[in-house]
């Protein structure tokens, strides 16, 4: 199983390849990959699908609508327990 850092770096690389600008934030119990989601990603099915595909690699993820009307997608990878194909993963969204 890949380490949490490797998983987060892979997600960040895929987001970069999709033209986004991800940041990896190191928290005490998890790593968080964040990126702003421009309207061009939301309005194109292939771009949106790629974003969702990357987010599904995480242990949990969400989409936050900012006060300025923008969007930030985030994906968290736990440092404590490796994700497994049969493991339960929580997915959420915040508005």
Strand order of the largest sheet: 1-2-4-3
> What Rg, in angstroms, do the CA atoms define?
13 Å
Number of extended strands: 4
The separation of the N and C termini measures 33 Å
Biggest beta sheet summary:
4 strands, antiparallel
Number of helices: 3
Instruction: Estimate the global geometry from the Cα principal axes.
Output: globular
Q: Catalogue the unreliable spans.
A: none
| Structural class determined from secondary elements | alpha+beta
- The average pLDDT score comes to 87
Helix content: 25-40%
**Approximate strand percentage:** 25-35%
Order of helices and strands: HEEHHEE
Compile the SSE list and pairings.
Elements: H1 4-17, E1 23-26, E2 30-36, H2 39-43, H3 45-55, E3 60-65, E4 71-78
Antiparallel strand pairs: 1-2, 2-4, 3-4
Key attributes of the depicted protein:
single chain; 95 residues; alpha+beta; four-stranded antiparallel beta sheet; 3 helices; 32% helix; 26% strand; globular
Please tell me about this protein's structure:
- The protein is an alpha+beta fold.
- It contains three helices and four strands, in the order αββααββ.
- It has helices at residues 4-17, 39-43, 45-55, and strands spanning 23-26, 30-36, 60-65, 71-78.
- The radius of gyration is 13 Å and the shape is globular.
Condensed summary:
This protein has about 100 residues and is an alpha+beta fold. The chain is built from 3 helices and 4 strands, in the order αββααββ.
